[in-house]
Amino acid sequence: METHEVPVSEGAAVDIPPDEALTDDAFLGGRLCLLQPPRGHRAGHDAMLLAASAPADARRAVDLGAGVGAAGLAFAVRADKAEVTLVEIDPPTAALAARNAARQQPDIAVRVKVVVADIARLGRPSGPERPAAGSADLVLMNPPFNDPARHRASPHAGRALAHSVADADAETWLRAAERLLEAGGRLALIHRPEAIEALLAAMKGRFGAVTIRPVHPLPDAPANRVLIGAVKGRRTPPALLPGLVLSDGAGRPSETAERLLRRGEAI
User: Fold this and answer.
1) Is the predicted pLDDT of residue 13 greater than 70, yes or no?
2) Could you tell me which of 122, 127, 144, 150 has the fewest CB atoms within 10 Å of its CB?
3) Residue 264 and residue 28: Cα distance in Å, rounded?
4) Percentage of residues in the chain having pLDDT higher than 90
């Protein structure tokens, strides 16, 4: 596919729907505002949790499969010294991510680049110039969740593209992350618990010091997400961390959820 960088500018000529066809949604207590389509794949808690799990001392971050920019921009808001590259395969969605980067206050656009690319080509000699191999100290990943073997793909084309991929294909994403990261660089990703086996198998020999943190929707409910961290080139065994609970027994947001999702604090 053709690879190019999308200008992060309100005045850029971009192929996105008109404002009246988009919603304007506030995250992190209003510190981040995202334009996004009302249907299809929409940014939500997963992206904010992923950003909260990432180390704020990173200086060169890449968000793979960035969508409208939710996770990468949330990280940029919290880590105010970091340069962030958003990588998205769908040109209109990438254009919307660029627009979202340009409209935040305080301004973060100078620290954000948006690249239209297939992640399988990243960090290769024949791939895009940016992001380059070994150029990142942090890679964020919110890969498609739904293995078609277990979940029916969405009839909405954009949602299916963003949500459906076989667990085994996560190796493509992890190989890309490995190529982009410098030695000792860190990986942060969010996924479904049932993908843990495939993810750990794909990380073997590439990443170590793996941490797994379950995310529970309610105190007594099974985890429906896992936050996974890892370090390129390490051989340290994995560790299971204390879980996060997002709502109390009555369904009200927990203090943890308020702290991470509303106040934009780190885990």
Assistant:
1) no
2) 150
3) 5
4) 80
DSSP assignment string, the chain: ---EEEP-STTS------GGGSEEEEEGGGTEEEEE-SSSS---HHHHHHHHHS-TT-SEEEEET-TTTHHHHHHHHHSTT-EEEEEESSHHHHHHHHHHHHT-SS--GGGEEEEE--GGGTTSTTS-SSSPTT-EEEEEE----B-TTTSPPPSSHHHHHHHB--GGGHHHHHHHHHHHEEEEEEEEEEE-GGGHHHHHHHHTTTEEEEEEEEEESSTTSPPSEEEEEEEET--PPPEEPPPEE-B-TTSPBPHHHIIIIIS----
Separation of alpha carbons 227 and 5, rounded Å:
29
pLDDT at position 96 over 60: yes
Residue 205 banded pLDDT, cuts 50, 70, 90? very high
116-149 pLDDT, tens digit per residue, is 999 999 999 999 999 999 999 999 999 887 545 4
In this structure, what token pair is assigned to residue 18?
A: 């008109």
Structure tokens that stand for 123 in this block: 């960090």
Question: How much is the CA Rg of the chain, to the nearest whole Å?
Answer: 17
Distance CA 119, CA 127 (A): 9
